[in-house]
Amino acid sequence: MNYSVPDMKKLATEIRKDIIRMTCEAGSGHPGGSLSSVEIMVSLYFNVMKHDPKNQAWDDRDRFVLSKGHVCPVLYASLARRGYFPPEELMTLRKFGSRLQGHPHRLKLSCLETSSGSLGQGLSIASGMAIGLRMDKKSPRVYCLMGDGELQEGQVWEAAMTGAHYKLDNLCGIVDVNGLQIDGRTSDVKNLEPLADKWKAFGWHTIEVDGHNVEALISAFREAERTKGKPTVILAKTVKGKGVSFMENKAEWHGKPPSKEEAAKALKELGETC
Amino acid sequence: MTEKKSGLNETLHLAPNIYDKVEKIPTRNGFGHGLVELGHANKNVVALCADLSDSTRALWFAEKFPDRFIEVGISEQDMMGIAAGLAAVGKIPFLSTYGVFSTGRAWDQMRTTVAYGDFNVKIASAHGGISVGADGATHQSLEEIALSRVLPNMKVIVPADYWESKKATIASASIHGPIVIRFGREKVPVITTEKTPFVFGKAETFRFGNDVTVFACGPMVYEALIAAKELEKKGIDVRVVNMHTVKPLDEKAIIDAAKETGAIVTAEEHQVNAGFGSAIAEVVVEHYPVPMKRVGVIDRFGESGEPDQLMVEFNLKSTDIIKAIEDVLSRKKK
Ligand SMILES: Cc1ncc(C[n+]2csc(CCOP(=O)(O)OP(=O)(O)O)c2C)c(N)n1
Ligand SMILES: [Mg+2]
Predict the structure, then answer these.
(1) Domain-wise residue ranges, chain A
(2) Would you call A152 and B75 a contact, using CB atoms and an 8 Å cutoff?
């Protein structure tokens, strides 16, 4: 089932609200990079990816690997809104005994493909999935979401070489280019530019796109599907904290939850009616 | 013949009110303050961090000595190598990140570049233990002791509180070679004072006792003291030894305890397998076997939760030390 663009835009707002409520209730967690990834996740889970919440172990499902595990609030909210588990469970984020661990754990929540939280490892796992699926002549595609700061890990570039060397055209990387990490701007901490040139030089089909524009994202994913003989990376230009004015473009909202008052303010901005 | 002493060791200037109104400060703050002091005292001291400078408190050094601070971004393996290079040209580098990433992610670099080469690199490992809390297993480092003590040339310190963290940081600058120092995230009881002696490699008996010995490191020293106090009511006389230096171990303190008290419990906020308790057991088994029990994380990964709640769920409280003591006493030769 593919959702329409207006539906997806509404869902994006709902998911933003979930992120605010979840991190506020948990008293910790990572709102900034969750909010910047909302449209990417919505495009994948509500349109681009082949998957079935009613048949989670379906062999031919597309695979999603969250390499930047700290933004699991956006993943959990997307999964819940897509029918994998009841949205009420989102409020158990980070609590003792919850399936929604502070960083994703596949043994707790079976609809997760991997566990993550240590940056830089996802693209290698995704490559392994892509290679294995191709060996079995299977059609699923593999998607991997990374942060821009995360690209400072050397392993990402090892995986980049793997993807190109093995011509993994069933692999699609997405980088949430929000320009921020914990200690500040990526350009100040350790510069990544020229980023598109780097990926191109590594042999990847490289698409730059507005990461908050669902239509543009979907068309980039379709272009990736059509691209043969090499993997694709989508560099999604985003705003960290997107949708909540006081969080936008502020490094301090990387790993800080909103207080009750801040959450109320944020929810109001997002158009909560109650 | 040693004199049979009891109660807290008055000569160590421990904090007053350990048992009631104890102050709490995170050990990582001791690292932050110690590093700033070192910065003033020795211009060769430099600091590195991998996008966690506020969390590890390396930021405090960075603010005072921006020219001697190297932000490497999210590149821990690179950081380990850069630190070795800095040491090679005469600097005393203190690198800092979470323990999972320093002793884990960059383990091969720590092994073959730093330890094998015996470079003078100080590895500040933050966020040790289950008490990291809600971030969950991926960030709760429970393996640093095992991963570092296995390496030749490596030294390992697990300070018990704020003051000890500060002193260990400062002391490590004048001890040659690679050293891992483990810190925690949460506020923990301050049981020592500025005056309490800290001698690298020397265990300190915080509480005298003759029936059983608890060797503890990190914030578990406090839990051990609480357990000892509780058992005093039952007439059980517990020795509590703060083993801040996990490598090299003060073997004499261990052998003496085995001979004098005949039973040993260890306590660590870390995997017991290959960890601190195992290190003590190696000495006990080879020199003077007595009944032993290790309190710590038993072969499982951490989980999300409130720090205090996790300490209970993972059996890391004074009550768990008491149970372990009762167990070894029941097995002790009369
Ligand atoms: C290997 C590793 N090093 C450090 C961290 C701590 N950490 C968590 S998030 C983060 C910053 C990530 O920045 P970025 O990839 O840009 O993510 P985003 O901006 O999308 O949140 C860091 C350093 C980690 N989780 N893993
Ligand atoms: Mg970023």
Answers:
(1) 5-269
(2) yes
Whether residue A208 has pLDDT greater than 80: yes
ipTM: 0.95
Per residue in B230-256, pLDDT (tens digit) is 999 999 999 999 999 999 999 999 999
Say whether residue A118 is in contact with chain B using an 8 A CB cutoff: yes
CATH homologous superfamily of A5-269: Thiamin diphosphate (ThDP)-binding fold, Pyr/PP domains (3.40.50.970)
Q: List residues bridging with B214 in a β-sheet.
A: B240, B265
What pLDDT, on the 0 to 100 scale, is given for residue B333?
79
Q: Are A97 and A88 in contact (CB under 8 A)?
A: no
Q: Which amino acid is at A18?
A: D
Residue ranges of chain B that CATH labels 3.40.50.970: 25-189
Helix residue ranges per DSSP H, B262-297:
276-287
Handedness of CA B125, B130, B136, B138 (dihedral sign): positive
- Find, among A69, A194, A186, the residue nearest to B73 by Cα: A186
Contact between B143 and B271 under an 8 Å Cβ cutoff? The reply is: yes
Does A2 score more than 90 pLDDT? no
**How far is residue A118's CA from residue A103's CA, in Å, rounded to a whole number?**
9
In Å, how far from its chain's centre is CA B252?
Answer: 19
Closest C-alpha to B260, from B232, B241, B286: B241
List every span in chain B annotated with CATH 3.40.50.920: 7-23+195-331
The per-residue pLDDT for range A103-154, each reduced to its tens digit, is: 999 999 999 999 999 999 999 999 999 999 999 998 999 999 999 999 999 9
- C-alpha–C-alpha distance, residues B159 and B287, integer Å: 26
Q: State which of B49, B51, B95, B101 you would mutate to test the pocket of ligand 1, scoring each by most atoms of that ligand within 8 A of its C-beta.
A: B51
Residues 75-114 of B with CB under 8 A from A: 75, 77-78, 100-101, 104-105
Please tell me the distance from the alpha carbon of residue B277 to that of residue A171, in angstroms, as a whole number.
46
What is the assigned CATH class of domain B25-189?
A: alpha beta
Distance CA(A191)–CA(A180), nearest Å, equals 11
Who among B52, B100, B138 is closest to A69 (CB)?
Answer: B138
B7-23+195-331: CATH, from 3.40.50.920, 3.40.50.720, 3.30.365.10, 3.40.50.300: 3.40.50.920
pTM of the shown model = 0.96
**CB contacts, 8 Å: A103 with chain B:** 135-139
Q: What's the CA gap between A141 and A130, in Å, rounded?
A: 7
Residue at B178: amino acid letter:
P
